[in-house]
Each structure stands twice: as C-alpha cells, then as structure tokens.
Amino acid sequence: MSTPHRLLARLVGPLVIGAGLLWGAAPAPVRADAFVDGFEDLPLMPGLRNVPAASVSFDAAVGRIVVAFAEGGVRMPAVRAFYEETLPQLGWSPDGAGRWTREGEVLTVDTVVEGDGLVVRFELAPR
After folding, report:
1. Facing residues of 107 across strands?
2. Is residue 34 part of a domain?
3. What's the number of domains the chain is made of?
C-alpha cells in the first residue's frame, strides 16, 4: 500500500469505527408485532396480550377517549422501562409518573399486580 493510501486508511479507519459505535449506541427504532387495542400507534409490550372485552374507545367533541387493558406475566419495572424508552420515540413527552402528553392528549399507563401476572391500563384523554 502506498504512503498516501496508508495515511488515508489511518484517518478514515477510526472514523468508520467511531460511527459504527455511535450507531450501535442509538436506541433502536420502535417496531411492534402488536398494538394496544384502540391505539394505532401504541406498541403492545412483548409478553402482554390485549384484553379486548375490557377496552373502550370513542370520539368526543373534545377529542378521542380510549381505555384499554393488557395482561401478562411481565414485571412492573419492565413495563415502565419499555414505555419510558418507547413513547418518546413516538412523540410523547413525560409528564409525571406513568403520564405522557402529545398534541393535546394525555396518555396514562398504570399497572396492577394480579395473581402471578400484571394488568396494564392505558388511558388516553384530551388534555
């Protein structure tokens, strides 16, 4: 390899490696196999399943209102971590524990331990 090529390799090599490390450190984009009932863009955490009979959704003059439930053998800290990582990628801003806001709407995510599993309640209402 000639001297100019070696110099170029020495300069570009670390940049390529650094870019690869930065790319790997970036959060993975949200990809969901399923969505929470009544929400077209709220991913259902893996390990949870929708409870369709308990979900309600309607449009009101002031905005849409959705209440949905999911259940599964997951732990409360894992649910919190999943939605704390996922919701900002979808434009939601944290507004307190389990509460998020976006474009005039408020999303609340609550969890309740039930038996060996967990029930997660999702509520969307106008702000």
Report:
1. 100, 124
2. no
3. 1
Strand ranges (E), 11-104: 48-50, 56-60, 63-72, 93-94, 99-102
pLDDT tens by residue, the chain, 127 residues:
555 555 444 544 544 444 444 444 444 444 558 999 999 999 999 999 999 999 999 998 889 999 999 999 999 999 999 999 999 999 999 999 999 999 999 999 999 999 889 999 999 999 9
116 belongs to a structural domain: yes
Domain around 72? 48-126
Cβ(50)–Cβ(42) under 8 Å? no
Q: Is 94 helix (H, G, I), strand (E, B) or coil?
A: strand
